[in-house]
Write a structure and sequence with these properties.
This protein is mainly α and about 120 residues long. It contains 5 helices and no strands. It has a domain of about 70 residues. Helix 2 packs parallel to helix 4 and helix 3 packs antiparallel against helix 4. The protein starts with 7 loop residues before the first helix and ends in a 25-residue tail after the last helix.
């Protein structure tokens, strides 16, 4: 008797280079999906080829690192359609959602708070 019988889903995951789903994968992926929803939500109400392309890239991003790198593309898309100020506000709201989910090599160093000058 085989413990792990091959099936189409296992073979598909192998071909795509993705990890096989585990019983705890849904817990780990909750943060990923929360970030993905926020990024997709920022495109709601917008139309056009660039929006459709960005929407697809966000939907099919395989991990949190892929979403991290898509932030700059999202910023560019939003800047074209909504203006720089709104695009930056959206990015400033989404970026903290990555906290604790990225590998050490991708984490943004925390800037120490500058001491306030006493007047």
């Amino acid at each position: 008797m085989r413990w792990n019988k091959p099936n189409l889903r296992n073979n598909l995951h192998d071909l795509l280079g993705r990890d096989k789903p585990s019983s705890t994968a849904w817990v780990r992926d909750q943060g990923l999906e929360e970030v993905r929803r926020a990024m997709l939500h920022s495109l709601m109400g917008l139309t056009g080829c660039e929006v459709a392309r960005m929407n697809m890239r966000l939907r099919y991003a395989g991990d949190i690192e892929a979403l991290w790198y898509l932030r700059s593309d999202l910023l560019d898309t939003l800047t074209l359609l909504r203006g720089e100020a709104i695009a930056q506000t959206v990015l400033d709201r989404i970026t903290p959602m990555f906290q604790g989910q990225l590998p050490l090599s991708l984490r943004v160093p925390q800037m120490p708070h500058a001491p306030r000058a006493h007047l």
